[in-house]
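Mods, move this if it's the wrong board.
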Amino acid sequence: MAPKKKQSLAVSRRKIAAERVDYDLRTTARIEKLYADAGRSSELVLKDWHGYLNIFCFVLTILCMILLYLYWEYLNLKSTGTVKM
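Not the wrong board. Structure tokens:
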């Protein structure tokens, strides 16, 4: 058996790029088929608000953690008698 020739890097990159495009087309077609089978619209609707929702929940969690820490500090100061009310 003769040894295989090595492909140039440009040819390999072109093949990889073509396969990525083909993969995206196959994936989109498959998703549209699944939507059609489920009886929904075949339009793919991207929900960009998911990223904003994640950021909002993260910020809300950090805010709650800060408030809990400040409340804990307040209780510690109150129990030692240094806070006058």
